[in-house]
């Protein structure tokens, strides 16, 4: 018998983790070996436990699921990643694919889709819910019609990390400690973010972060 797929589960709601874990652990070929309540903890646990598959919520403190997915795709390219979210949102869906995720599962149908998504990921096959397939086709047709690519992001991934932490109320020193960069570098990034987005202060940054799905209101 082949070994069970080792899974890291990251969601900031303990109740959600418990429910998802029940679904996964009831399958003989799947086993949850670690849990995390935010993206930064997820990265630490991925390094520690070396899972085969990571399942991330999108909206989590410190680092979002997408930010954690991008980082782990870089440092553990063999790790398969699924996004489990309540957002039926095209922007998040496309960002999840760009971040290295091989599947996007809606929490509302997790009991139906998640197990199959896990198995598909381990077969190196993408798993997309029906609405996501429609979004992909519509996006492809629109780009083909206009003859252009998806526009570049407004801010860099590093600026996005800093924007999220500022919006969560962290000081420049705390942000520097979390991201292992100097306070001066944090301040420079922060100034660049304000300039690029045309914003004035922390309040406007926070509103933008909520709209962009980096933090929950």
From TrEMBL:
Coiled coil: none annotated. The modification 4-aspartylphosphate is found at residue 57. The keyword tRNA-binding does not apply. GO terms for biological process: phosphorelay signal transduction system; regulation of DNA-templated transcription. Gene3D superfamilies: 3.40.50.2300. This is LuxR family two component transcriptional regulator. Residues 6-122 form the Response regulatory domain. The keyword 4Fe-4S does not apply.
């Amino acid at each position: 018998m082949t070994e069970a797929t080792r899974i890291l589960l990251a969601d900031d709601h303990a109740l959600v983790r418990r429910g998802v874990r029940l679904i996964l652990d009831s399958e003989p070929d799947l086993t949850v070996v670690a849990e995390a309540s935010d993206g930064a903890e997820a990265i630490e646990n991925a390094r520690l436990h070396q899972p085969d598959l990571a399942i991330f919520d999108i909206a989590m403190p410190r680092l979002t699921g997408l930010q954690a997915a991008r980082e782990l795709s870089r440092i553990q390219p063999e790790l398969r990643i699924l996004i489990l979210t309540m957002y039926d949102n095209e922007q998040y869906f496309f960002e999840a694919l760009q971040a290295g995720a091989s599947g996007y599962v809606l929490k509302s149908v997790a009991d139906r889709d998640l197990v199959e998504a896990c198995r598909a990921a381990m077969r190196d096959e993408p798993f997309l819910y029906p609405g996501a397939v429609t979004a992909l086709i519509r996006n492809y047709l629109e780009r083909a019609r206009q003859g252009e690519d998806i526009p570049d992001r407004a801010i860099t991934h590093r600026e996005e990390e800093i924007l999220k932490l500022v919006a969560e109320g962290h000081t420049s020193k705390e942000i520097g400690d979390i991201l292992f960069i100097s306070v001066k570098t944090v301040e420079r990034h922060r100034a660049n973010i304000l300039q690029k987005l045309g914003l004035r202060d922390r309040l406007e940054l926070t509103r933008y972060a909520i709209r962009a799905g980096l933090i929950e209101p």
